[in-house]
Amino acid sequence: MTLPAWPNGMIQQASCPSATTAARRALPKPRGRARPRWLVGGATLICLLVAALTKCWLLTVRFGLAGRLTYVWAAWHYDARARFDNTWPTWSTDYMVAALCLAQAWRLRRGCAPSDVRRRAEALLVLYAVATGMGGLMHQLHDGTHEALNRPAFRALWTVVVS
User: Fold this and answer.
1) Would you say residue 16 has pLDDT above 60?
2) What are phi and psi of 5, to 5 degrees?
3) What is the Cα–Cα distance from 146 to 16, expressed in whole angstroms?
4) % of residues, the chain, pLDDT over 70
5) Dihedral sign computed on CA atoms, order 41, 47, 53, 55
6) For residues 38 and 35, what is the distance between their CA atoms, to the nearest angstrom?
7) How many other C-beta atoms lie within 10 A of the C-beta of residue 149?
8) What is the dihedral sign for C-alpha 16, 18, 21, 26?
């Protein structure tokens, strides 16, 4: 006598003849074709991008005069109306974030086993520390004039900060 096989290839117990039928009924039925994970992830990212850009547009352009006066398109040509925050709460916060990122990268290096994920997390934290540290330095050293914002050095360094 041959015993019927389970769906996963295991042999059914002889004392339970209805187990095969019950097991087959319990299996989920496939619904159409499976979608690739990258497609679902890509669609999700596109939806999040559209939502974020819509929110930015609503807050800076659509709702009221304050948003339109706060966020003026400069395209790297700042005039006398441009403001760049060089107060101590701004640059000290940047320095704190940079220090915390470096501390977390150090803790990862000292406390976790080597792996690709650890190395990528360390790299991300160090790069973020460099960007926020440079942002703090630029906020702290800014002289308060709009001419300083138009210099090539500011453009290059600020590109590093916001990248």
Assistant:
1) no
2) -95, 150
3) 84
4) 79
5) negative
6) 8
7) 19
8) negative
Concatenate the DSSP letters of all residues of 45-74 into one string: HHHHHHHHHHHHHIIIIISHHHHHHHS---
Q: What is the pLDDT of residues 92-146, one digit of tens each?
A: 999 999 999 999 999 999 999 999 999 999 999 999 999 999 999 999 999 989 8
- Gap between the Cα atoms of 73 and 56, Å rounded: 13
CA–CA dist 10, 8 (Å, integer):
6
Phi and psi based region of residue 75 (left: phi greater than 0; alpha: psi -120 to 50; beta: remaining): left
Between CA 138 and CA 136 the distance in angstroms is 5
Q: What's CA 67's distance to the chain center, in Å?
A: 25
Tell me the domain boundaries of the chain: 1-34, 35-71, 75-162
pTM summary value: 0.59
Query: Residues 143, 120: contact at Cβ < 8 Å?
Result: no
CA distance 146 to 31: 61
Residue 87 and residue 78: Cα distance in Å, rounded?
19
